[in-house]
Model the fold of this input.
Amino acid sequence: NETAAVKVLPNGAQQQRAGVDDLEKAAVIGAKARAVSGLQSRLFGVDGVRAIERVAGNRRADQFPHRWRLGAEGAVARGLAAVDAQCGDVRFSAARRRVARLRRAAQLPPGKTAQTFDPGRLPPRLRQQLRELAEGRFLETPTNVLAFGLPGTGKTHALCAVGHQLVETGHSVLFVPAYRLAQDLLAAKRDLQLPRALRKLDQFEFLLLDDLGYLPQGADESQVLFTLMAERYERRSLGITSNLVFSQWDKIFQNPMATAAAIDRVVHHAVILEFDVPSYRINQAQQHDPQRSVPNAEPQKVPDAKEVNRQ
Ligand code: ADP
Ligand code: MG
Done:
């Protein structure tokens, strides 16, 4: 590209004789080089072809007669648009299509994004944790994300916001209420399709199980959930929101051995998010009616989660 543009560009005495056509050609090639190099540096970290820009860009064009310059600028603009459209077809639109597909597959609640989430009341550490999670590096060495806290403290909204951000950067995410996943897996098991159902879940880098703990009390449900956790262990990331601290997980898994085994796997590589804040809903209600007293609005500690964080 570089040599081609230099050859086409008129210089010295030739400049006087060169027609607008040649200049346009040079400008288009320069613009292409600029667009392609910009694209490459974004996509592959390759540095641009700056020489071309200097030769075919405005700096040289300044010395050309006005009429030529207009032609050159127009050509640069047209060249850029053409190259953009061309590159768009090949790379950008493929990426855009992929993200659109991931968005549909994720089934994240559409309103629960980072834009609608107010991190203001969260402790700085939690805010920092959420910012880091949104960057997605935790998916590289499969790490689970466990959000604990009382109802209404923003666990679901915060993890969905992270999920949305992951999807926009090309990661595959699935949001599913825990009770529904348990039912689906149970149905699959009855049809002898459990391995297939688990394989399908495997395609998602981040499986977000919402509200673990509100399960119908059934040994079968807890067993399939345990199977899922064992299956994903150290291979794929799991996100969990729960109002139940670990000491209460025997309500989910029902027998102490299964509970201990599940906790052991889930926390082995995990980020623990403690939503030690007052309920957002109660906060909002109080803002509208400050006289209203709300029992138990004070945040409660989540001792088990703290224990794990200290390990
Ligand atoms: P949890 O999952 O902890 O029970 P949710 O995430 O469902 O809580 O939050 C309860 C409601 O309050 C939701 O409507 C949610 O969108 C809203 N909410 C919670 N925390 C925030 C926040 N920090 N900023 C904006 N809305 C919030
Ligand atoms: Mg929730």
Summary: DSSP finds 15 helices and five strands in the chain.
